[in-house]
Amino acid sequence: PSDSIFPLSTDDKQVFINCKAKGNPPPHYRWKVDGREINTESDPNYSLVEGNLLINNPHVINHGGVYQCIATNTFGTVVSREAKVQFAFLQNFSKKSRNMVSVREGQAVVLLCGPPPHYGEIKYSWVFNGQRSFLQQDARRFISQRTGNLYIAKVEASDAGNYTCAVRNMMTNATVLSSPTLWWCGGMVSILSSPLLAPSYLAH
């Protein structure tokens, strides 16, 4: 077996971890996870298919770990290399309201994304005023792919509107949104955010 990352959103809800050993007579297989032997007869989540380990309805905590395949026949036993198995996932944003921030025209502002718990490669984008296309970066606007934060230099009146941070898991294609609202008031721009669930048109 080899190190693997599996998306938890797979339709069949099954994961295969491969193992193949040659021998005469043919070997019998068993598996360990984190040093603990797996009992496929008592654990309904695990089963063997020609030596390969099948995980049914995998869970990110219960079934992630270091797996090892063990093959045995009358002449001896061989043990595979360790394989780290992880699961890609993306949770929803917290529903807790965010604090309001005020910015004066001409100043710089940072809109915080604060991504929810996740694993696997993710991509950050922002949506302006609910448009179906993502906000384009330019000389004044920059999206950090490390934090997801949106940086706007020299705030203008035209920047007023609704800003939504979109977080996409590149393995599962799941997308969730947190929706900061930015509005203009005199010489001041104020920011208030409250999280929302992603609409279907962004989950692609």
Automatic annotation (TrEMBL):
Residues 1-86, 91-178 form the Ig-like domain. One of its GO terms (cellular component) is plasma membrane. Keywords: Cell adhesion, Cell membrane, Disulfide bond, Glycoprotein, Lipoprotein, Membrane, Repeat, Signal. Its main location: membrane. It is found in: Cell membrane. PROSITE patterns: IG_LIKE. It comes from Lates calcarifer (Barramundi). Gene3D superfamilies: Immunoglobulins. It comes from the Eukaryota. One of its GO terms (biological process) is axon guidance. GO terms for molecular function: cell-cell adhesion mediator activity. Pfam families: Ig_3. Interacts with PTPRG. InterPro entries: Ig-like_dom, Ig-like_dom_sf, Ig-like_fold, Ig_sub, Ig_sub2. This is Ig-like domain-containing protein.
